Amino acid sequence: MSAMDSGSRLLFWYLASRGHASIAEMAAAVAAVNHFEVLRRLEEVINPAALTHLGAPAAEFRERDLDPVTGAPVMFHWWCRSGGEQRSAGLADVFDEAGRLKIFVQVPLDFRAGVPDVRINNGILEITIPHVRAGCNGG
After folding, report:
1. pLDDT confidence of residue 133
2. 3-state class of 40 per DSSP?
3. Fewest CB atoms within 10 A around its CB: which of 24, 27, 108, 132?
């Protein structure tokens, strides 16, 4: 997502961390001048960058959907698209100590980690860890 300016990156991470948000929530979160600025970033910066790097838009508008955590109906929100099941991991704890970076994130109790794929692109760390289910692949 190197094509994104800092404001667009902030908007992307805000939406990704929440899963969905209204235009007003996103505007407040990134101190946008108006709602049009948020829409412009979504449509002209974030989604084109996602198409280039991920092969699909990162955000989509939905008139109505259900919150995956609460089950409550959500009206007129932008949703973060994901190639797989999206889980809110809550906050990650990140420690930069003695020349190494340690990241702690809560995972499901049945999670068994495969070999991680680690990438850094323009200051954004992406870690992909395959989930090896218990009883499969020697787990």
Report:
1. 56
2. helix
3. 108
